[in-house]
Structure formats: structure tokens, C-alpha cells
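Late entry, evening session. Most of the bench is empty. Finally got around to the prediction I had been postponing all week. Sequence below, unchanged from the version circulated by S.P.
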Amino acid sequence: MQTIFIWNKKIKFNMKIIEPFCQISQIEANSEAKPNLVLIHGWGLHGGIWETLIPQLEMTYKIFNIDLPGFGRSPVSNSTYDLDYLVESVVSILPEKCNILGWSMGGLVATQVALKYPEKTERLITVASSPSFLANSKNPNGLDDSVLETFIQYLSEDFRGTLIKFLSIQTLGSKTQKEDIQRLKETVFLHGTPAEKALAGGLNILKDSDLSESLRRLKMPLLRVYGKLDTLVPARSIASIDKLAPKSEKELFLKSGHSPFLSQTPEFIDCINRFIAKPIETE
């Protein structure tokens, strides 16, 4: 792990980046080159959430499974914990060309990576994510501001309890709710307790980020994956996002909530494989 200092004269930010932990597939020397697939987890968790999928995904892709700063096995620096910080942390270990998949808050990170570094991003996949998690004129069916404000307040009082409660909400409505919440609970503290700075900063990212107007600038293929039973990114918000990304593809998993890759794993992997297998059309 190395420390990187980033100075951007244009927008005047100075950032200290500690390379995050990234589990990379081991590819046999004589095997055919596989497409790169980067996995970015959501708030409160770490790359271990993809554990049950990785053996199957590795059959087709070289996997880069990242723990965002302050989660799992990744340290957090003293820089401001915002979306740009997460983006630069991820980019510090990205391969030259890759397909990027982000779940929930990870979808915001993946989208911003694609916007800032399109030369690295071959395809973008967002899972149970939204360019704006809060309701606004572009996404009237998003969350009410009070939902995240309440979690931010409770986080300072009982961050472990707040974390478990937020994870429980993610499984609401799922046909496999009991199994999903058990999987999330088993994963969350597997590599220690998430940094409070990362938890608070992540909630603020969910509250403050709005990439709605930027989606039209994306040039690479975009796949948006949703769960019909999701309560954090409700299915009724999909139509609004369709208008922001009219050239994108979408997939709605009818028996899933916020974690379709856990609830309907085989179908989810098939969906990802079909999308990445399509040739990229050049304009």
C-alpha cells in the first residue's frame, strides 16, 4: 500500500490518498486474457459482500474487488471524506481499461469515476443506485431528506446499531429477506469495525451527491440494475432516471430488494455477462 498526494490546480484541492485494499484475481500465465471487472461495494460494507459471486465471475473476468477507504481492510487518510476522495482512491489502483460495477453508494463512486476518467472505463454498471438518492426535481421519487438526516444523527450516538439498522432496511421487501440480512450481518464486521469517519462521510455522500445532469455526458455503455422490491431506490424512480440516461440499458429483478446480487445471484450474473459480452458500438 502506498500513499499518494494529489494536487489539482484547476479546482484547488489537495488530497492524500492511501491506496485501498484490492483483491485481484490470479490469472494463469497461459490463459486467454480476460476483461477486467472492478467491483465497488456500498455504504457500511466492504468487498466481502461479493464473495459468493466471485468464483463464478472469475471464470469470465479478471476481478478487482475493492474495499473503499475506511471499510474492510482499507485505511482512511485525514483528507475530507467526500465523493472526489473515494473516486481518486479507486482510480489509484484501476487497470488501464476496465468495466466498473458499483452497488448503491458504490454506484455513485463508479459513475463519477466514469465521468472523470472515461478513458479507463469501458462499460459502467450501477446496481440499486441512483444519480441522486434524495428526492428532487429530476428524481421526485427519491428518499426524503429526513431519512438520511436521522441516520446521520443516530450514527454519532450508536454507530454499530445504526449500521445494522441501515443494513436491515436494505433487505426490506426481498423474497429472501431473512437470508439477505444474515449475509449482510455476517459480512459487515468480518474485517473489523468500519471507521466512523467513513460511515459519516458515506452518509453525507448519499445525502449531498447529485449526478443527474451529468449522466447525459457518459459515452460508454451503461447498465442500470434494480430490484423491484427496493425501498432505498424504489422501482417508481426508474422512469425518471430513464430520462436522464435514455441510451442506457436497464434490468429489473422482480424478486429482489436493494441487493439483487444476493437475492437472485444466477440471474444477476447472467445479466452482467450478457451486457459485457456485447460489442461496444463506436460513434
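Two things to note before I forget:
The beta strands are 3-8, 13-18, 22-24, 36-40, 62-66, 98-103, 121-127, 222-227, 249-253.
The chain is about 35% helix and 15% strand.
Will write this up properly tomorrow.
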